[in-house]
Specification:
The chain has 188 residues and is mostly beta strands. The protein has no helices and 16 strands.
C-alpha cells in the first residue's frame, strides 16, 4: 500500500531498498530554501541495522502490513529462540540476535505476537512493559534523593538499567521493553 512520506509515523513498517524497515522517528523539515522533506530514522526488521533517510514530503513510500500471529515462547538454546504457534502447534525458530537485548524479556510460556511477512517471521512484538525484580542495586545515599539522579541496578533477567535512588534490592519494577528503561514501581 502506497503512502506519502508525510504520512509516515513511528511504528509503521515500510519496504525500502528491497528490505523491511520499522519507522523509529520522523521529523518534518521545511528549509528556508527548497521543498519540505521528511527526515526518517529506520531500523531494519531482520538484522536491526539503522538508517537515516530523507524523503521528499510527497514522495510515495511502500507501507507493509504485517500479520500478527500469537506464539508461545518455548525456550532459548543460546543461539536460537524457539516458539510454538498457539493454533497449529507448529514450531518456529528465530536467531537470538534478531531481538538483541530485548530477548531477556522472553520467559518460558509467555505468549508474544510474531510479525509475519509473506509467511515468514520478521519480528517479535513483546508486551510494551514487563515486571522484573531488582537483584542488585547500590544503597541509598543520604541527600541524594532530592536530586533527579539515577543509579544502576541489575534485574532478575540480567539486564542492567538505571533506576531512581529509592529503588532497592527485592523490589519489583516496571520496565519498558522498547527502550529498556525504568517506568515505575510495580504494585504488589
Amino acid at each position: 500500500m502506497k503512502v506519502t512520506a508525510n504520512d509516515l509515523r513511528p511504528g509503521m513498517v515500510i519496504e525500502h531498498k528491497g528490505r523491511l524497515w520499522r519507522v523509529v522517528k520522523t521529523e518534518h523539515v521545511k528549509p528556508g530554501k527548497g521543498p519540505a522533506y521528511q527526515q526518517v530514522e529506520l531500523k531494519a526488521l531482520v538484522d536491526g541495522t539503522k538508517l537515516n533517510e530523507r524523503f521528499r514530503a510527497v514522495e510515495p513510500v511502500e507501507r507493509v502490513r504485517l500479520e500478527e500471529v500469537p506464539f508461545q515462547f518455548l525456550y532459548d538454546d543460546g543461539e536460537m529462540l524457539h516458539f510454538m504457534n498457539q493454533e497449529t502447534f507448529d514450531q518456529i525458530s528465530l536467531p537470538r540476535e534478531s531481538l538483541g537485548e530485548r530477548a531477556v524479556f522472553l520467559r518460558e510460556g509467555v505468549v508474544v505476537r510474531l510479525l509475519m511477512h509473506e509467511g515468514r517471521p520478521v519480528d517479535v512484538e513483546l508486551p510494551d512493559t514487563v515486571v522484573c525484580e531488582v537483584v542488585e542495586a547500590e544503597p541509598v545515599v543520604k541527600g541524594q534523593t532530592a536530586a533527579a539522579s539515577y543509579k544502576p541496578a541489575v534485574l532478575d533477567n540480567g539486564l542492567r538499567i538505571m533506576v531512581p535512588p529509592h529503588v532497592g534490592v527485592g523490589e519489583k519494577v516496571i520496565v519498558d521493553t522498547r527502550d529498556l528503561s525504568y517506568v515505575g514501581r510495580a504494585r504488589a
